[in-house]
Amino acid sequence: MFPHVVTSKFRKKLKAVLLDVKADFERREKAFERDERRIKEELLAAIDCHPPRPKIDDFYIAAVDGSGHPRVATFDDIRVHIVTRAISLLRTSPDGDAPFQEVGPQARDAGLLTEQPESDFFWHSGVGRDALEKLKETILEFYPIDDTEKIVLPYFKDLLGVSSLDELADHSPEYQIPNSVRESLISDDMILSERTLHEQVMRVYEYAAARQLVENEEMRPRYLFLDGSLTLFLRRSRSYPSYPSGFVLRELVSSARKRGVIIGAVSKDHTIPFAHRIATMATEVFPRGTKWFCRLPSDDDPGHGLEIYKDRIYIPPTLAVTYLFCFSPDNRPSRIDFDRIWWLENIFVNGDPETTRANEITLFRDIELMSRDARWYGYPVPLALAHNECTLTRDNLRAIRHEARALLREIELDFTEVNPLREDYNL
Amino acid sequence: MNAETEKNQEIDLDKQAELFGRVSSGDQTSLVLICNDDDLATGRLLLIRSTRGGEERIFFFLVLRVSNYLKYVDKAEDVASTLVAFEDAYLIDGSLRFFLEVEGHLLGYAQKNKQKGVWEFRPSKRTPEHFAHVYIPQKKTAEKLIGTLFGPQLDGEIYVGDLEDGDTALPVRVNLPVKFLPMHLGIFGSTGAGKSNLMMVLIKSFIDHNLEVRRGAARSRQPLVSAFCIDPHDEFATGTDTYGIHDIVEAMDDSRRNEVMGDFYYLTSTIRAVPREIKRYARELRILWDEIQPEDLYSIMDFSPQMSWFIDDVYARVGDRWVSEILNMIETPQGVTPGTFRAVQRRLAFLKNSDLFVDSGASTLDDIIYALENGRVLIVNTSLMSSTEQFLVTTIVTRTISDLRRALKSSMTLGDFKKQAQERLPHGLYQRIHERMIALYARGRTANDDSPVASPTELPAVMITVEEAPSILNPELMKGRSVFKDVSRQGRKFNIGLIVISQQVSVLDRVILSQMNTQISLRLNNKTEIKSCIDNASINISGYEDKFRTMARGEALLTASYRDVPLPVKIPKFDDLFEHDKRRYKGGTSKRRTTRHALP
Ligand SMILES: Nc1ncnc2c1ncn2[C@@H]1O[C@H](COP(=O)(O)OP(=O)(O)OP(=O)(O)O)[C@@H](O)[C@H]1O
Ligand SMILES: [Mg+2]
């Protein structure tokens, strides 16, 4: 046993820290108290749900999720990454037991979902700028748009209303992007950790699949779910995304909007402060078992943002709207982000909070209907399906590495090491 | 190897079978697969393609356990309780997400012999790799696929049934080689499991084989098969349901019938009780007391050492007349106690009241022996006999034929043989039969004392059924001098095989059991019997307990020491088999059956 645990000095130190935490907590508690009424009266809403077998019109719903591992094989300073992704595509099912059903075979006929899950590889060495160069190449290889300016533009278009990158010159310095970003989405001075690099490749691989779904005409989904959030990390003192995936995400979101696809990014695990308190509040306000949602307004909205996340610059993210929702008494509330531009056009009605609320309810009523699969009750089923399909298990990884070893032997490449399974990355 | 056989050996699983799942885990005997959610019965045969080490191998996998496997669901009970708790909950029917977890045995694998261009089967000493493709044979391709890959495991001249695949039979015939019949056959099954039906199927196959041989068309040059079939319920001739062996006899034209069945095939203790149509082919079974030897009685009844000493003594003095000598004694002879003497008389008393065993008159034993040496099938209705009579008939026939074969085996010339046979056989019997036998045993045209004799292996394989086997093949009787002990050990030498039929395995003598190189196990009801059956099988079938428990009537597991895998077999119902084949017995035009068949 760790002998210090019982000493008084040890306890004193620990207590000091916990007191600090308490003080911070109380400070935020005060913030919550200030927000409480507004949340209760303006932001929190009950969903009047669809009946078990509702009459709804015919549409598709979809989700994309990705996964991967940064070290399938390593040789000295060379790393081989694997990225995986899966699409799930469902359609309303007028006479099934469930209101939706998977459309595997038809989708394959339409050239979608031909391989499920799909995977690809990415490698780089530690030599000079090799990783950055490989990242640039890979993004363009994965994502179906070749012209990088077309990927960069949507962000600025949605934010500033510009119609070409040249117009940025008319805006303040924080919007001035270096040429390298224009040409490759990446600023040359960027330093990437192996983890970030992997994350970038993975995200773009995932968004590329979503882009395919948006682009296809035959089975274009009405709702397309992504795993995570619509968070854009911005460069310090700059007002544009620090990573290429940020631009790609905005390109995806804006093309979805143009084609009438509603994108929702969902996270079960999130750090929205006081989410549990909001959930408790919901149980007090609504009858037992009520399914609810709660908008987390931004400073641009009427009444401004909430106190509880005042110091959290990414809540809600730039160009996004964030809600908490809870469709099952057994679940913690989840977070969902929508594209703010779509939201302004389709949900929000300026000066008319009633209609806005009615629009929100209609939206969540549909999403709730998609979240009743008994395996993942309360969580959108397309996402659960995609998630399960793409996730690499330890066994998968072991098998992949085994295969890699066999292939190395086959191509007669002497390798120093194929990483043993020690770290547990993104599993 | 010609082009046609070469072509016949071509296997393409993707075309000939359906991809069904993948290997998940396991070792060289038991394996777990993940398969499509389909209607899969235990007992089905799956094929696994392995390319490990660059060699294509096709593994045979027998399904022993099937359970549902829901992907992404650790606890199905959580999902079920959610469905109960939330009325609006549903399950998206993603057909890809329901799977079967299939456990079972690897039976072995087939690998192509590149030189010979044929697939060869090997017992499993290997394991297919992770995620190897699993195929399910389709009905229409199964015959070729399994026939090609599994061939030697199924080969033989004596049809037993069709390879069973779960709860249906594949159109793949399972046979027994004639050359292994003298290594004895055990048929085990509880009452109603289908033993009698199986015997009828076997009898039919013996007859079919003999037809083939006499037509000169037998695929391999195998000898004829004779059988002495005890029929305690008088059901073989007329059948348990609609058809019986007699219908085969009737279906033949005269010349063929004469050739294959001879002038009789049915034996009974009283000809009066025989239905008219069968009477023409029936004989009344009579055996003279002279033809009984002490050993015959020792084989079927318990005698104390004092009793057998007494019997042996009488036999040494009076020879063949020993039975009447003892039965006619009034006084206790010298050298025995009155107790022993009376006990012996009591044991022999049944002979006095027997219609079958007579002191004088005509014996049928010589006709029986002659028929058996001629490749004929005899059905012995023992329904009107006592068990003791039934056992004694079986024993005498077995011993007589084995004495003859033994004499033959140790002779170079007919002259030798005559001497040997005379020593072994009862005098009267020898006198009556030696001329006829000599004609059969002579190798070549002439039959004088210098002529060489045939070897027993060129003569018909003689199969003798032992019904209600535990009464005579129990450890007690087998301790003493038993005709069956000898035959079970040396049957192969003399080309004589036993068909041991029993409802119980556990009570049979272990030495006898160990000599059963072929075992056909039908349904067994109790644990002890299942265990004995598994323990006694000549190949490892541990793990098959469940299989035994779920066997239906007519389902069997065939194990043989000369084969690598246990074969699940669906024994056809004799009626269906006969319906299907009956035209074959008609006329001279009938060709060798070319259509293989599966019965409904
Ligand atoms: N292979 C089979 N397929 C279908 N039915 C069968 C099969 N074998 C036997 N049966 C049926 O089962 C019944 C009993 O069969 P059978 O008389 O052969 O059993 P058994 O084992 O000899 O019983 P016992 O121990 O009482 O003599 C018969 O009516 C027969 O029709
Ligand atoms: Mg029977």
Percent helix range of chain A: 40-55%
What is the third-level CATH name, the topology of the domain at 174-251 and 464-585 in chain B?
Rossmann fold
Largest sheet of chain A: 10 strands, mixed
Enumerate the distinct ligands.
Answer: adenosine-5'-triphosphate, magnesium ion
Cα end-to-end separation of chain B: 35 Å
Which segments of chain A are poorly predicted (pLDDT under 50) over 5 or more consecutive residues? 421-427
Mean residue pLDDT of chain B: 87
Mean pLDDT of chain A: 89
| Number of β-strand runs of chain A | 10
The interface involving the most residues is between: A-B, 23 and 22 residues
Shape of chain B: elongated
Unreliable runs of chain B: 589-600
**Rg of chain A, nearest Å:** 23 Å
Please trace the helix and strand order of chain A, writing H or E for each element.
Answer: HEEEEHEHHHHEHEHEEEHHHH
Q: Terminal Cα separation of chain A, in Å?
A: 31 Å
Number of domains of chain A: 1
Q: Topology of this structure?
A:
The complex is a heterodimer of chains A (427) and B (600).
Chain A: H1 8-43, E1 44-46, E2 60-75, E3 78-92, E4 100-102, H2 104-109, E5 118-124, H3 130-142, H4 148-160, H5 179-184, H6 194-215, E6 223-227, H7 244-258, E7 262-267, H8 275-285, E8 292-296, E9 320-326, E10 334-339, H9 340-346, H10 353-369, H11 381-390, H12 394-410
Parallel strand pairs in A: 2-6, 6-7
Antiparallel strand pairs in A: 1-8, 2-3, 3-4, 3-5, 7-10, 8-9, 9-10
Chain B: H1 3-8, H2 13-16, E1 17-26, E2 30-36, E3 45-50, E4 57-70, H3 76-85, E5 98-113, E6 118-123, E7 133-137, H4 139-150, E8 158-165, E9 168-176, E10 185-188, H5 195-214, E11 225-231, H6 245-251, H7 254-261, E12 266-268, H8 276-279, E13 282-284, E14 287-288, H9 294-300, H10 305-318, H11 322-328, H12 338-348, E15 357-358, H13 365-372, E16 377-381, H14 387-409, H15 414-424, H16 427-441, E17 461-466, H17 475-479, H18 483-494, E18 496-502, H19 510-514, E19 518-521, H20 527-536, H21 545-549, E20 555-560, E21 567-570, H22 574-581
Parallel strand pairs in B: 10-18, 10-19, 11-16, 11-17, 12-13, 12-16, 14-15, 17-18
Antiparallel strand pairs in B: 1-2, 1-7, 2-5, 3-4, 3-7, 4-5, 5-6, 8-9, 8-21, 19-20, 20-21
Helix pairs in contact in B: 5-7, 9-14, 10-11, 10-12, 14-15, 14-18, 15-16
The structure holds adenosine-5'-triphosphate and magnesium ion.
